[in-house]
């Protein structure tokens, strides 16, 4: 709807004022308050300034020159010159019928041009996959689902940290303490690798002799010594298995292409920067100086691309990776989902890539930063004994708590359900709760991880929405009419205010999804779904469905059915699957 209005306004404005004036986009926005109708056009005010005229008079000229009778009530001019737009209920009714019959529920699809790479999750081998990676995984997956649904060609890439000096250290340590890990698959329990890594690190920090051995090991690895490579591969294999457990639980599709993949392309990056005259030697290291990057003292802060010992780093890899994604993957948009702590890194890498002419004009680079996940006391998440929490344990706890809640509820409702039902529901509820708690926050802020809040049946939570779906679905099912195959092309009837409010909200889905596509903020979709369930509740309170007369009953059943479908689709775009019973 909003797109249609924008188009009509654009044409009318051009006809009325000619091409010499500029109009502030967007021409039409959703109304900030239902008192002002459904949409607003606020262009009269800036236009009046340009034309040195009275804004109300300008608004009047717009209103006189636009014909929206087909969809809208007569336009109203309010305050200093806002134009309020209210859609006619008959038009809403017609749109609802169309959306209900559309398998995409009224959400338009684009014809993809180019390719969007989404770099997300990206944990590091042999180090733990921490809550930050969980956030990247959940947010990245949801963004991918939303873009895919809109029709984009998406390549989901897992840029795992599978290379670097830490491997020298770990291999040197294991060679002394647990050599079998380096020669046999699965010689160490999944998860123990992280502990061994920590021990290696502490030895590295304390023991100069060991430090030297670790350095030698890095050299061997870099020169592709076969024994070292085999050890490295075994370590990667082991970590990968651990990551996969999490991805399977969370239903995440990802293609792994780790840092090591770009090793062969690193020297060429240095050459390229050299050719572009961007390299400067600073205390033996090769760097690129950037605009607007200074340290605390105000001295220019360079991006190091080759260390004084000749080694490359995270930034060099990201430059090679960027180039590869553009040239080989043909990416036209690259989205990086990482914690906000890496914002500087990406600004620098993007700037260097631009300066080195790696990024053609049609390619867009986007960093999607997110805040920290904190414990309820605002500190870092830890176990009771102060250890860092393993993701698997965290997810298991969510499932276990969901199970307890469910068992209590079943008991109080006097229901008897079998083991497989209980396990399935707890798993879906527990995991959805974790995902939704993350996605419903504006990602740029830190959020506090609270099992109690995320598992609550009330409020903007996954259990609330899952429950809303079960209820709405139940109601439309009770109608006993096959709504998917209505014989007559029945248009719905909208009489009550709460029906109208619900219907209008249902029709906002297309707009909301496009907004998320633009801002990459899935919390907007969460809020939309939460408000949808609330509006459905008000409608259900005020409008009898099954007891209503035949045509009203059918009409209300369609509203209920569409609500259920929208919740299901919306949740699926957040990576959450619905339950038919819970
Ligand atoms: N492995 C990194 C980390 O754990 C994230 C990688 C993000 N992607 C990238 N292309 N740098 O922080």
From TrEMBL:
Domain DALR anticodon binding: 465-582
Family stated for the protein in its record: Belongs to the class-I aminoacyl-tRNA synthetase family.
Organism whose genome encodes this protein: Cyanobacterium stanieri (strain ATCC 29140 / PCC 7202)
EC number: 6.1.1.19
Motif 'HIGH' region: positions: 123-133
Keyword terms of this UniProt record: Aminoacyl-tRNA synthetase, ATP-binding, Cytoplasm, Ligase, Nucleotide-binding, Protein biosynthesis
Name of encoding gene: argS
GO molecular function, one term: arginine-tRNA ligase activity
Coiled coil segments of this chain: none
PANTHER family: ARGININE--TRNA LIGASE, CYTOPLASMIC, ARGINYL-TRNA SYNTHETASE
Name this protein carries in UniProt: Arginine--tRNA ligase
Classification via InterPro entries: aa-tRNA-synth_I_CS, Arg-tRNA-ligase, Arg-tRNA-synth_N, Arg-tRNA-synth_N_sf, ArgRS_core, DALR_anticod-bd, Rossmann-like_a/b/a_fold, tRNAsynth_Ia_anticodon-bd
Key word Ligase present: yes
Intracellular or extracellular location(s): Cytoplasm
Main location: cytoplasm
CDD domains xref list: Anticodon_Ia_Arg, ArgRS_core
């Amino acid at each position: 709807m909003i797109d249609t209005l924008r188009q009509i306004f654009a044409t009318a404005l051009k006809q009325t004022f000619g091409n010499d004036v500029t109009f502030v986009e967007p021409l039409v926005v959703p109304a900030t308050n239902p008192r002002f109708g459904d949409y607003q056009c606020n262009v009269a005010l800036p236009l009046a300034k340009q034309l040195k005229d009275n804004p109300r008079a300008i608004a009047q000229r717009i209103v006189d020159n636009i014909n929206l009778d087909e969809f809208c009530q007569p336009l109203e001019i309010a305050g200093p010159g806002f134009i309020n737009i209210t859609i006619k209920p008959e038009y809403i009714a017609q749109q609802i019928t169309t959306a209900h019959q559309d398998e995409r529920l009224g959400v338009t699809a684009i014809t993809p041009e180019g390719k969007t790479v989404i770099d997300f999750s990206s944990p590091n081998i042999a180090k733990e996959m921490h809550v930050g990676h969980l956030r990247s995984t959940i947010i990245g997956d949801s963004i991918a689902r939303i873009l895919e649904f809109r029709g984009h060609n998406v390549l989901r890439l897992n840029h795992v940290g599978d290379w670097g000096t830490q491997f020298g250290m770990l291999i040197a340590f294991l060679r002394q303490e647990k050599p079998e890990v380096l020669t046999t698959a699965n010689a160490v329990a999944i998860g123990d690798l992280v502990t061994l890594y920590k021990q290696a690190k502490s030895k590295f920090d304390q023991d100069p002799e060991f430090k030297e051995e670790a350095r030698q090991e890095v050299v061997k690895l870099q020169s592709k010594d076969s024994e070292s490579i085999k050890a490295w591969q075994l370590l990667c294999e082991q970590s990968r298995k651990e990551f996969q457990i999490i991805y399977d639980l969370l239903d995440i599709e990802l293609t792994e292409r780790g840092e090591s993949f770009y090793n062969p392309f690193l020297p060429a990056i240095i050459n390229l920067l050299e050719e572009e005259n961007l390299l400067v030697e600073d205390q033996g290291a090769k760097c690129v100086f950037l605009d607007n990057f200074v340290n605390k003292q105000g001295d220019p802060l360079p991006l190091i691309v080759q260390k004084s010992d000749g080694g490359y780093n995270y930034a060099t890899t990201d430059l090679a990776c960027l180039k590869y994604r553009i040239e080989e993957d043909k990416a036209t948009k690259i989205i990086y989902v990482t914690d906000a702590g890496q914002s500087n890194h990406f600004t620098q890498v993007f700037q260097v890539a631009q300066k080195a002419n790696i990024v053609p004009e049609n390619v867009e680079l986007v960093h999607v930063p997110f805040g920290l996940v904190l414990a309820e006391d605002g500190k870092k998440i830890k176990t009771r004994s102060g250890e860092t929490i393993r993701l698997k344990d965290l997810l298991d706890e969510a499932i276990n708590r969901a199970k307890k809640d469910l068992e209590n509820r079943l008991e109080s409702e006097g229901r008897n359900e079998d083991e497989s039902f209980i396990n399935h529901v707890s798993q879906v509820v527990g995991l959805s709760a974790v995902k939704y708690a993350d996605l419903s926050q504006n990602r740029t802020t830190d959020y506090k991880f609270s099992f109690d809040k995320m598992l609550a049946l009330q409020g903007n939570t996954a259990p609330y929405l899952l429950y809303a779906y079960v209820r709405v679905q139940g109601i439309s099912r009770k109608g006993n009419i096959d709504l998917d195959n209505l014989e007559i092309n029945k248009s719905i009837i909208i009489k009550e205010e709460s029906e109208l409010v619900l219907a209008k909200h249902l029709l906002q889905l297309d707009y909301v999804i496009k907004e998320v596509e633009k801002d990459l903020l899935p919390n907007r979709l969460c809020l939309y779904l939460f408000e949808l369930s609330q509006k459905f509740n008000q409608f259900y309170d005020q409008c009898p469905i099954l007891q209503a007369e035949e045509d009203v009953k059918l009409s209300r059943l369609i509203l209920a059915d569409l609500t259920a479908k929208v919740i299901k689709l919306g949740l699926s775009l957040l990576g959450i699957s619905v339950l038919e019973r819970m």
